């Protein structure tokens, strides 16, 4: 049986503690759990991350908003997703993610960098080998202050 998609996997500015999270996931009924997904994570020159399919692990959060289908159009605008075949910055896909607190696997919406734009990633972006953007930012701040 295919389980329904109830939440979104986020790995960048939509995680708790970042401005986009506060702006989009305001509802008290939103549940947030630590999670991981299969893929590779890059830090873009614009200052935010991009996930692409790959054999690595991306660390993030699984968010179940009070009304997922009310939130998705807002997320689509933020992520530059115009629909299948559109001139997208990110594509919205469904992928299995693992909840870190229980090991449970759930299906989630997540935004991956558009396949049309991936050729530039290796040239213009930095691969985050450990797959954790929050950790990457902490490490970069330590380098800058040290």
TrEMBL record:
<dbReference type="Pfam" id="PF06094">
    <property type="entry name" value="GGACT"/>
</dbReference>
<dbReference type="InterPro" id="IPR036568">
    <property type="entry name" value="GGCT-like_sf"/>
</dbReference>
<feature type="domain" description="Gamma-glutamylcyclotransferase AIG2-like">
    <location>
        <begin position="8"/>
        <end position="135"/>
    </location>
</feature>
<dbReference type="InterPro" id="IPR009288">
    <property type="entry name" value="AIG2-like_dom"/>
</dbReference>
<dbReference type="InterPro" id="IPR013024">
    <property type="entry name" value="GGCT-like"/>
</dbReference>
<protein>
    <recommendedName>
        <fullName>Gamma-glutamylcyclotransferase AIG2-like domain-containing protein</fullName>
    </recommendedName>
</protein>
């Amino acid at each position: 049986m295919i389980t329904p998609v109830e939440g979104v996997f986020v790995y960048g500015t939509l995680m708790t503690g970042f401005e986009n999270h506060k702006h989009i996931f305001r509802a008290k009924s939103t549940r947030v759990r630590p999670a991981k997904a299969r893929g590779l994570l890059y830090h873009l020159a614009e200052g935010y991350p991009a996930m692409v399919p790959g054999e690595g692990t991306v660390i993030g959060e699984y968010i179940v908003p009070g009304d997922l289908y009310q939130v998705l159009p807002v997320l689509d605008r933020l992520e530059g997703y115009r629909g299948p075949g559109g001139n997208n910055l990110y594509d919205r896909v469904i992928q299995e993610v693992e909840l870190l607190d229980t090991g449970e696997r759930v299906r989630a919406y997540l935004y991956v960098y558009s396949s049309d734009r991936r050729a530039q990633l290796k040239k213009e972006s930095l691969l985050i080998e450990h797959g954790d953007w929050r950790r990457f930012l902490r490490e970069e701040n330590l380098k800058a202050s040290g």
